[in-house]
Structure formats: structure tokens, C-alpha cells
Amino acid sequence: MQSTLRWDIFCRVIDNYGDIGVCWRLARQLATRGQTVRLWVDDATALRWMAPTACPGVEVRPWATPLALPHEPDAGDVLLEAFGCEIPPEFVQRYVDWRAADGKPPHWINLEYLSAERYVERSHGLPSPVMQGPGKGLSKRFFFPGFTAGTGGLLRESDLAQRRAQFDRGAWLAKQGLGRRASRPLVSLFCYEPVALPALMDQLAAAGAVLLVTAGRAASALQSRRVPAGLEIHHLPWLSQDDYDHLLWACDLNFVRGEDSLVRALWAGAPFVWQIYPQHDDAHRDKLEAFLSRTGAPDSLRKWHRIWNGLDAGALPPLDLPAWRVAVQGAQRRLLAQADLVSQLLKFVCVGPGGQETP
């Protein structure tokens, strides 16, 4: 079923590195399965720390205006626009001309944002006719990541379980200068600027915890905060994607934000609290509630999420890590039973939504 294809993935970095983070994971996983990828991105600076080593089979190209078209006369086999970004018309024209010349059907995919809401199953795989521009007459197809068998699944490397089993927590903590703190509660912080941050710090101080703070907005959110007695703060450097996984694996509790780190927290299997990206029309409330329901979050974890995300007022309830761990690991087992996103994406392209093999 699986063919060797050439993929052109287009990504615009909107905010907070989530877009490029997802696209790099996708490109890297496609390459490890024998695909070749050109990743077109308008700002690749985050890859310097996110992906400090090159990945064979992945070429990063600048998405400038106007776009510098490749010297080679061909386009790829698959066009993939991440999160609704508009592929430059000059590239679409090159793609249309190339597909017409070689007689192969076009594959134009719109990779959407992750959600647990019910509309995802209804929308996954649907066509979207292109009504204007050089692609007029073609159809894009929506590919929705998700948490059920009726969606495109979640990004997950084929060797993830093996790497997790071989992880040496003590050695990694020692490398971060935290060897002596290994016996204390360790909590990772990757967040925006939650109002409830001081209340969290007070709870962690009472537990004698060490708060491992990621670089960027989380570190900035702590700059003017009073650190209560009993809480130790450890600021981390910018972490590669692999080392961010290691951070999640090493901690007893993880605070994550956005889309990419949410999925990595699920695969880590430790208790976590998710700060969802806020939307001006409060659409993130429904999105959060759908996720909590889909993952079977207990009442204490639901309340924590609502307060942490500024959706409810009141005091934070006590941390209930044993109950949260049961819920997270139950969700993890269910998700591991589903096909991962890249496997489904390859099937989507090579076999097609209707189950018919494409040339």
C-alpha cells in the first residue's frame, strides 16, 4: 500500500512555535517511513533549538514572498497546507502543470487543528472544491487529527514506546543539573500567563516541589512573581523536541499548552494540566470540555483545567495526582490502540478516502 512519495508541506508560524513544531514532527515521521519532504516555512528560526540536527529526507526551504520556486522542474506528489495556510499560487500552478504532465492525480491536503469535538469525525476526509486561482477545479481534502477511530489520529513515532522504556531519568536529570533533586516532586511548566500561577506556586511550595520552567513565555510569566518558601525554581534552556519529551517523562506533573505539547503529555502518561490557546469568542471553552470528556477526566481535574484556563473563578482544588494518573493512562491506552496520524495519512493518500488505491 505504501508508496515512496514526495511531499511539499507549507507552514506559517503564527504564534508560540506550535505550528512549526507539529509540521517538523510530521515531516520527520514521514521521512523515517521512506518519504521525501520539502518543508516550506516562513520563519524557521525555532528549528535551531527545536531540531538542532538535520533529518535525512527532510529539506527545509524558505517561504518568502515571492516564493523562490525550485530549479528542478517537478513539484511533489502531495501538497499539504498546515492549519489553513494558503499555498502560494505560483507553486500551485507548478503543481497543476506537473500533475497534468505526468498524468497522476493530485493530492492536496489541508491538515487541520486538533480537537476532540464531534464535528471532527463528520468533517474528516471531506473535499473542499477550489473555486478560483490556478488550482480551480481541484479539491483539497480535510485531514483532522483527533482522539477517535473516525479521525486522523495523533502524531506518534513508531519507536516511541521503545525510547520511553530505555529512558534513563537519573542520567537526564543529572545532565540538567538536577541530580540531587530527583527524589523531590518535579513539575514542568510550559504555559502562557495563567492568572492562577501564584496559587499553583503556593501548592507546590507546600509539597516541597521543584518547578522546571521552560524558556520563553513560561519563564517570562515568572519574572515578577514572588517565589514562596519551599518552592525551588529551575530555569531550563530551549529544549529540542526529543529533550522536551524527556522533560515530560522525568516529571511527576506537567503543565502544557497548545496542541503539540498536549499530545506529548498524553504519550508521557504522567498527570498533566493543559492550557488551551484562548480564542476571542470563547470557542476554546467547548474545545476544552470536549477534550476533558473524551479523556475521562475526573471532577478534580476538570475543575483544575477550568480555573487554570481562566474559565471559572475560585480557589484551585488540591492536586490529586493518583486519580489524574489513572485517567491519563487510561486515555493513553485507548489512543495507543488507534492507528497513528502518519500511518493514516499515508493510507489516506495511497488508498484514498473511499478505499480505492490511487495510482
What features would you describe in this structure?
The strands form two sheets. The chain has a seven-stranded mixed beta sheet, with helices on one face. A five-stranded parallel beta sheet has the order 10-9-8-11-12, sandwiched between helices. Mean pLDDT is 93; it is low at 354-359. Helix 11 runs antiparallel to helix 12 (299-308). 37% of the residues are buried. By secondary structure, it is an alpha/beta fold. The longest helix has 16 residues, at 321-336. The protein has helices spanning 18-32, 47-50, 89-102, 119-123, 160-166, 169-175, 197-206, 217-222, 241-250, 260-268, 283-294, 299-308, 321-336, 341-350, and strands at 6-11, 36-41, 58-62, 78-82, 107-111, 127-129, 139-143, 186-189, 210-213, 232-235, 253-257, 272-275.
